[in-house]
Here is the input.
Amino acid sequence: MKKVGNHSSISRIYLLSLAFLLVFSLPVFAQDAATPKDAAAMPAATGGGDAAKGKELFNANCAACHNLDKKMTGPALRGVADKYDKAWLYKWINNSSALIKSGDAKAVKVFEENNKAVMTAFPQLTTADIDNILAYTSEPAPKPEVAPVGAVAGASAEKSEGVSNDVILGVLVLVMGVLITMLYLVYNMLSRIALSKGLELTATDRSIQSVCQAFVKNQFLVLVSVIMLMLISAYFVYGYLMQIGVDQDYEPVQPIHYSHRIHAGSNGIDCKYCHSAARVSKNAGIPSLNVCMNCHKNIAEVADTTATPEHSKAFYDGEIQKLYDAVGWDRTLQKYTGKTQPVKWVRIHNLPDFAYFNHSQHVTVAGVECQKCHGPVQTYEVMKQFAPLTMGWCVNCHRETNVKVEGNGYYEKIHKELSKKYGVDKLTAAQMGGLECGKCHY
Here is the structure.
């Protein structure tokens, strides 16, 4: 019998690969109807007012202090048309203070029952507008929908948006199994062909011991391998050491969930409204809970549209209740109880003590936007550290950022001198001394 080489290596095998690119995602739009199912069944307690227009007027004028079913700064207003005469309501809504000063018994009673909170006068509202508002407040309270037994929580879980990752992974595993099976079958077929033709398969000595012995005997190969190993190790050690103290993407869980996406994004609240110290101080500061209560004294729950698949409406409402517990606010009595609890916020951005950074110098003098350093915070559900905050990152910013000297008398003289020196119209922070060691390290 003839002896031939090892046929375990197969040279000419062509495999046909199939690309699975049939992954489509269909956006699902859900729209909640806020109008009652049977409009004819609504009580006409307000004399033919338009409830739809009344809802718009209520949200524009009344919602800041009133809720239909819950007491806020003012009382709950559902069914208020059945409690008071319409003529009296006209006078109360147009100018409640004048009605109280006149000594009206009902007006004085309502004023005292609500902690003597002065109601804003609305002389611009006509009797037709008030009839529309009363029609809206006379609508019956919606009945809570009971979820069917076995229903999966969350509407997004009931509908599939595209092919699941598990399905794609399963297909890839199946394709890999088919390829392995094909290779095994081809190897067996070639082995049988070789045996049928009288060819004897011989195995070459490729043991680990023989390979190691050959490697040790080649001194040049050993030297090159050692050098490469040292360079690779030095690279990884240097990379590890350079990451010490760098907390980019640090995203701690706070004791009270605060969504920048809702406040800075959806509601458009300016960053410096809460972090007002950033304009005049070295530190941006942690906003006082009293700043939160400026709005949340009258906002005890979020809208249904605020909820996300990760966080439900009940979750957000529970976080607002945590705020109330911290400041000692009784939402039912609409007053402070005096029992407060400290909130142990977790600090996210923390520069070392030897690095000096002044927020007011950057925010007020330089006019740098908050997103420059903190990233698109208006999209963050949970706040995180956007930038590495390393020395190299700060230096690059000073080299790239032009100083805003227009209308700033402090920079007028130095700008004229340095612009002639460098032959440019715009000066970067680096050209104005932003790279001097003493600027940040003192």
